[in-house]
Design a protein that fits this description.
With about 180 residues, this protein is mostly helical. It contains 6 helices and no strands. It is elongated and about 90 Å long.
Length: about 180
Amino acid sequence: RRSPCSAAGRTRPSAQKFFGQVISLKTAAAVLLVVCGLSAGLSETMRLKSRERELRVFADALAALKSAAAYTAGDLYALLALCRENAFLQLVQPGADLYGAWEQAARAFFTRRGDTELACAFIRGYGKTDLEGQLAYIGLFEARAAGALAAARRDVSAKRKLYTMLGLFSGTVTALILI
């Protein structure tokens, strides 16, 4: 009987099987690293798109408040009751402290601090003038929200492909380094 190691040039079948398993595990790990990098890039892209959506909803809320104020000339409680279909305004739970409720809704709604500050700055100055002053004040914040929305749209268009490709590239490089 021959021993398995005596045949020249032959390897043991268990070693070949082990080598095949190592290669398949490394390949699977490399694919997972690439997918993780790509998902990280796509996650950043979705964060940018989320900011754009938040600012669009807030700009729509300001337009709805301005329209309701122009037609009803009511106080802020009445305006909120008329504009409840807006996603941002639904978060405002009017109670004894309407301004605090607005700021709490802004903190819950926006993911970026600068956008939260924009919404909070609006409520701090609202209602301190007559109707024409309030309409002009809402118009001012509509313009500020439109500027922020335009900047968010520029960020999405400029950085969307960059974040996706950067995630894909970093995952690929990590996989190549580890293999």
